[in-house]
């Protein structure tokens, strides 16, 4: 059985997440859901030093999630055509890569 979506998200390796969208656009459902999940106290407790910034625009801005990792790398999701499960899966894959790298170094 697959893990619930909320259990796939960890902020352990994340320095900052910036979520940007225009609430009046049709294609913001997945980014709103993602924002809800990462704002959850269980997820936030995986790294309390991670800052979460939300930028609400009223200019038709395409929804994006910018993830800045503690190792200096950045990840950008353009979420207008991504479902929540696709977004979480890609984010989890990026975290898993970092977890595997950390395990191999120790």
TrEMBL record:
One Gene Ontology CC term in the entry: mitochondrial large ribosomal subunit
Compartment(s) where it occurs, according to its Swiss-Prot or TrEMBL record: Mitochondrion
Residue ranges of the TM segments: none
Main location: mitochondrion
Pfam families tied to this protein: MRP_L53
The UniProt record lists the keyword Cell inner membrane: no
Keywords: Mitochondrion, Ribonucleoprotein, Ribosomal protein, Transit peptide
InterPro entries in UniProt: mtLSU_mL53, Ribosomal_mL53
Gene3D superfamilies for this protein: Glutaredoxin
Family, similarity comment: Belongs to the mitochondrion-specific ribosomal protein mL53 family.
Name of the protein this chain belongs to: Large ribosomal subunit protein mL53
Native source organism of the sequence: Strongylocentrotus purpuratus
């Amino acid at each position: 059985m697959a893990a619930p979506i909320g259990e796939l998200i960890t902020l352990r390796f994340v320095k900052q997440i910036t979520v940007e969208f225009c609430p009046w656009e049709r294609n913001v459902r997945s980014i709103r859901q993602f924002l809800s999940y990462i704002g959850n106290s269980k997820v936030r407790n995986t790294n309390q030093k991670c800052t979460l910034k939300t930028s609400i625009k009223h200019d038709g801005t395409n929804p994006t999630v910018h993830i800045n990792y503690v190792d200096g790398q950045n990840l950008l999701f353009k979420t207008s055509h991504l479902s929540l499960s696709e977004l979480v899966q890609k984010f989890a894959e990026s975290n898993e890569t970092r977890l595997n790298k950390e395990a191999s170094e120790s």
